[in-house]
Amino acid sequence: MRQHASGPAGGQRLRTPRAAAVAGIVFAVLLGTAIVLVRMALPGGDFGDAQLDSGQRAQVTTALTLVPFAGIAFLWFMGALREHTGEAEDRFLATVFLGSGLIFVATLFGSAAAAGTVLGEDTSSEFGRHYAYTLLMTYAMRMAAVFVFATSAIGHRLGVLPRPLALLGYLVGLVLLLVGTAAPWSELVFPAWALVLGIYILRAARRAA
Prior knowledge:
Layout: H1 7-41, H2 54-85, H3 91-119, H4 126-158, H5 163-179, H6 189-208
Helix pairs in contact: 1-2, 1-6, 2-3, 3-4, 4-5, 5-6
C-alpha cells in the first residue's frame, strides 16, 4: 500500500479510506438485513404469486427503506477500495470496477422502486412483482459478481489484498454469477464479502496510522 504524506493533507487522505471502510461495513449490514427481511417475508423467493399479510408487508417495506442507505454506503465503499489500491491501478480493471459498481447501485435502486410501487397497490400486478424480483436477484447480483471479480483482480495484481482474501472474492463472484436465484439466500455472500473486506481495510488503515 502506498505511503501517505505527512501533515494535514496526509492525515485527511488517511482518514478518508478509514471512514469509507466503515461505510462498507454499514453497507454490508444494511443490505444483509434487507435481504434477510425479504427472504423471511417471502420464503419461496419469487413473490410473483404470493399474497402478503400485514406483517410480511411491514418486513418488505422495512427492507425497501434500508436499500437507499445501503446504496449510498456502497458508493463510499467504492471510494475506499480505490483509495486503498492507489494510483497504480489497471485502467481496464478500474473501468470494469466503476462500471459494475454503478450499475449495481442503479439496478438495486430500480428494483427497490419497482417493488415499492407494486407493494403499495391493493392488487399487485404479477408482472411488476416478477420485474422487481428479477431486477434485484438476477441483474443486480450479476453486476455484484463482476464488481467482486474486478476488486479481487485489482487487489491481487497490486498486492494490496492478501491472497486468501482475493481467492475468497473469486469464489464469491462465482457463486453470485452462476448460482443466482437457484439457491435461496446465496445473495448474502455479497454483503458478507463486503463486510470482510471493509474490516480488512479498516485494520490496514489503523496499522498505517
